[in-house]
Amino acid sequence: MSNRNQIEQFIRSTLSNCRFVVVSNREPYVHRYTDSGEIECSRPTSGMVSALDPVLKASSGIWIAHGSGNADRAVVDRSGCVPVPPKNPQYLLKRVWLSPEQVESYYQGFSNQALWPLCHQAYTRPRFDRHHWRNYQQVNELFAKEVHHAVGNSRALVFVQDYHFALLPRLVKQRCPQAVVAHFWHIPWPSPESLQICPWQREIVWGLLGSDLLGFHIPQYCRNFTAAARHLFPRIKADQRNTLLGGEHSTKVRAFPISVDFEEIDRLAASAETSRRMEELRRSLKLSKWVGLGIDRLDYIKGIPERLQAVAHFLELYPQYQGQFSFVQVAVPSRTEIPDYQQLSETVASLAKEINARFGKDGWEPVKLISASLPMAEITALYRLADFCLVSSLHDGMNLVAKEFAAARCDNQGVLLLSRFTGAAGLLRDALAINPFDTEESARQIRRALEMSPTEVRYRMRRMRSQLRRRNIFQWMVDLLAASVECGTAPLGGTEESFPAAAAF
After folding, report:
1. By C-alpha distance, which of 256, 189, 173, 258 is closest to 226?
2. What CATH number has the domain spanning 262-471?
3. Contacts 24+ apart (CB under 8 A), 398-401
């Protein structure tokens, strides 16, 4: 039985008498106008969408998300809903409309200039702006009203996604007391000491404590959250399983390491189309004998400048690879309205140009910088082409590129170089560990990857692929759902206005 069939069977047996609602900022289907004025629907490339889409289909659920496509309004009914997928509708997508100011303040502002840098220890200073915070509160309230409209007082499982909705679990629980509220935080949770700089740390933690189940990628983030909750609200107790107890309500804090759709990536990697595309890319990019690869959103947490500096140091330490080595860096533009990201884009482009000017000769350039979003078919071909994939994140909740690379290596070839500061590092132990802040170590690990014996390469890759085959994205989803339905529907005391003083709770 396939993974999708297994999860569908599990859903039908567990959610048959319960409405399933997903809440996220990003929508699973986007409608846009083409140049000819027609409307086309696309599904964003996202591990979260891959995992949740079959759950919604099997449960005939509702997905509530921000409507961001320029044709989204044209296809919804009077209540803002559209059946999806377009060709075979099986659930409802409820779109929430945000004003440009709300998008700017709640998303670009508080979510990505305050919470994102606060949670990632990448040494970019968070920006705490009261106007952004007020809009963040307003948007969380707006989504809570939409959830209440969809759920009311009926039995439901409401699954909230990520740092955009830290306040939502408590707001939903107050309005929908019969609902089980699960929240998955897709990025790291900071240490209590780091969290203290946030002016609204208590409101954020209090909002998340409205969850019946609160999920993080790894146990360390669970411990960080538990320590913060107990520090901010001294009367909260924690049992041996990291369940936080406060009055009538309890919050289970658990680790659920997210993964990838192993079967789909493996199938695509083994296809004739991928083999054809590999040859095309080798010719068009003028790749050398040895190929290294980096694939990331253009984000300061990904350590792209540090990675390029490591490549330069590698060529300096081991000149025999000059003219024989190509490093392909795919840097997908991201959050281009934010100054820190604009500066990063300029830095990466400048570094690539500098390295090519320094080492390039006779038509050979060591760094191939691709500043664009590529389809998964092309990314898979690059995964197959590479002798190694270098993941040098300065801090990352999990990092799915590392897992995608291993899933794509149906040939059991390729070496993964993985930052110690990713959630994936504690799981993929057969990767070569690197400290992205240590340029010397990274350069030496690049050489080790290129000179590793074929036997060791196959051994390491087979072990990683075996692990990913077992612990795939669908198993992640099943584990979360199973833990959620075990939570029950304990009522949440208090009213919307009852935020407790530190001494009282």
Report:
1. 189
2. 3.40.50.2000
3. 398/186, 398/217, 398/218, 398/257, 398/258, 398/422, 398/423, 398/424, 399/423, 399/424, 400/47, 400/258, 400/259, 400/260, 400/424, 401/295, 401/296
CATH of domain 3-258+476-485: 3.40.50.2000
Rounded Cα distance, 226 and 247, in Å:
16
- Judging by beta carbons within 10 Å of its beta carbon (0-12, 13-18, 19+), is residue 352 exposed, middle or buried? buried
122/141 Cα distance (integer angstroms): 30
Strand partners, 296: 331
**What would the mean pLDDT of 266-291 be, rounded to a whole number?**
97
Which H or E run contains 141?
helix 130-151
Residue the block writes with tokens 């809570």: 144
Burial 78-93 (b: 16+ CB within 10 A, else e): eebbbebbeeeeebbb
Burial class (CB in 10 A: 0-12, 13-18, 19+), 6: middle
Q: Residue 390 has what pLDDT?
A: 98
Structure tokens, 417: 């170089």
Distance (Å, rounded) from C-alpha 209 to C-alpha 373? 37
Q: Which residue is listed with tokens 């997928």?
A: 85
Question: Hey, do 3-258+476-485 and 262-471 end up sharing a CATH topology, with the first three levels equal?
Answer: yes
Amino acid at 290: W
Residue 388: both structure tokens together:
């190694």
Looking at residue 242, what is its pLDDT?
87
| Annotated domain spans of the chain | 3-258+476-485, 262-471
CB 415 within 8 A of CB 460: yes
Q: Which residues contact 49 (CB under 8 A, 6 or more apart)?
A: 26, 28, 43
Residues across the chain: 505
Query: Each residue of 105-119: pLDDT tens digit?
Result: 999 999 999 999 999
Residue 186 gets the label, from left (phi > 0), alpha (psi -120 to 50) or beta, of alpha
Q: Where are the alpha helices (DSSP H) in 360-398?
A: 376-385
DSSP-based three-state secondary structure for 134: helix
